[in-house]
Every structure is written in structure tokens, then in C-alpha cells.
Amino acid sequence: MQLTRVAEAKLPTQWGEFLMVGFEEISTQKDHVALVFGDITGETPVLTRIHSECLTGDALFSLRCDCGFQLESALDAIAKEGRGILLYHRQEGRGIGLINKIKAYALQDKGYDTVEANEALGFAPDQRNFSFCADMLTLLGVDKIRLLTNNPKKVRVLSEAGIKITERVPLQVGRNPKNSHYLDTKAAKLGHLLGRS
Ligand SMILES: Nc1nc2c(ncn2[C@@H]2O[C@H](COP(=O)(O)OP(=O)(O)OP(=O)(O)O)[C@@H](O)[C@H]2O)c(=O)[nH]1
């Protein structure tokens, strides 16, 4: 186990009230957070979103990616279901960090695609470690989920970490003229389902 569960409190939102649970990485003290909606106990698989931090999309309304649209859509789906989990996974920029993501955006403005830009900066296309997410689910007492994602790697890595994924639920939202090349590149090079408008 790489995480400990360190704090929790209610979080009222426009979707209803969540239980916000804070986790800390044991080696680095870096924090992650889960939002729990409704009763997640029992045998029925829990609708779950693993959302990787994207300051620009989630908080600053960027149209360069689909992240903010996916975040809203996932919260809509969880609230409609009446139960679910959103893991907010603090690995900004597919794990390269905010400053490097800004550098990658500058390269994309010069014609690199999102994968080539990461590589030009010396990073793999996706530097994220998803085993933290399996730890968060285990610490929440959940081992069976329906995962809201377009990314086949998340399904594979979580399954390998012992989480049973009974369904992959697509989250194909947020396509716009500013992110269509980015979404097409993710589908072609990283295997994602294609984002739609
Ligand atoms: N390095 C890099 N990271 C990006 C870029 N655009 C968005 N991100 C980051 O990508 C992460 C989200 O990854 P995505 O590939 O959009 O989606 P995913 O999490 O793999 O898959 P989904 O579950 O379908 O959302 C967030 O951490 C964003 O900050 C980019 O151009 N370069």
C-alpha cells in the first residue's frame, strides 16, 4: 500500500453532497482526494471516475483538452446513478506536472502533437502511476467498479492491481475546434475512444 487515508469531511456541491476523503502518498506526502456519493457499500459495482488533475481544463475552463467537460459529465452521471466515486488523481499533465504541460502546450503551438511534445521534453507519452487509484479504492472498501473512461490503459492497470472492472463506461464529451486534433491524436496514438461534441 502506497497511500494512507488521512482526513474526511462533507462537501456540498451543485450535484449534491459528497464525502470528501483525503489520502497521502506515504513516501512523498503528496495528496490525492476521493469524492464519495451515496452508499458505496454492498456487492453492486460502483460507478467510478478516475480523473487526472488538469488545472487548465478542470478549473480554468480551457478548451485545449476535454478534461473539464469529462469532470462535469462524470459528476452528472454519478449524481444520476445516486451512488459513485470520483477519484481526483493529482498527476497533472499525464504525470509531467503543470510547468512541463505548459512547455508541452508551447511545443504543440509550434506543430508537435501531444505525444511528440512529451517526447521532445524527455517524457513518455503518459507518465502517470495508476496504482495509487487502486490503493484509494481499497482504502474506501471497494473492489468492483464500472469505470467511466475512454482510456483502455486505465482498465488494464486497475485490473492488474486487483480491481474488478465489470464495465467500461465511455465518456466521449467536450470536442470543440480547439481540441479536435488533440482528441484525434489520443485516439490514434494512445488508444482512447474518440471524444465527441
Ligand atoms: N502532457 C500533457 N498532458 C495533457 C495535455 N492535455 C491534457 N493533459 C493532461 O492529461 C490528463 C488527462 O488525460 P487524458 O488523456 O485527457 O484522459 P485519460 O485520463 O487518459 O482518459 P479518460 O479517462 O478517458 O479521461 C490530465 O492530467 C491533463 O492535465 C497535453 O497536451 N499534454
Automatic annotation (TrEMBL):
Q: What note does UniProt attach to the cofactor annotation?
A: Binds 1 zinc ion per subunit.
Q: Which reaction does it catalyse?
A: GTP + 4 H2O = 2,5-diamino-6-hydroxy-4-(5-phosphoribosylamino)-pyrimidine + formate + 2 phosphate + 3 H(+)
The organism's place on the tree of life at top rank: Bacteria
Q: Which GO terms describe its molecular function?
A: GTP binding; GTP cyclohydrolase II activity; zinc ion binding
Domain (GTP cyclohydrolase II): residue spans on this chain: 5-170
Cellular component terms, GO, for this chain's entry? cytosol
Task: Tell me the residue numbers annotated for binding Zn(2+).
Answer: 54, 65, 67
User: Is Metal-binding one of the keywords UniProt gives this record?
Assistant: yes
Its EC top class is hydrolase
InterPro entries, per database record: GTP_cyclohydro_II, RibA, RibA-like_sf
Coiled-coil stretches are none
The annotated pathway is: Cofactor biosynthesis; riboflavin biosynthesis; 5-amino-6-(D-ribitylamino)uracil from GTP: step 1/4
Q: Does the keyword Transmembrane apply?
A: no
Sorted alphabetically, the keyword list is: GTP-binding, Hydrolase, Metal-binding, Nucleotide-binding, Riboflavin biosynthesis, Zinc
Q: How does this polypeptide assemble, per the annotation? A: Homodimer.
Family, according to the entry, reads as follows: Belongs to the GTP cyclohydrolase II family.
What HAMAP family does this protein's entry cite?
RibA
Instruction: Describe the task this protein carries out.
Output: Catalyzes the conversion of GTP to 2,5-diamino-6-ribosylamino-4(3H)-pyrimidinone 5'-phosphate (DARP), formate and pyrophosphate.
Task: Provide the protein name.
Answer: GTP cyclohydrolase-2
Native organism: Rosenbergiella nectarea
Q: Which gene encodes it?
A: ribA
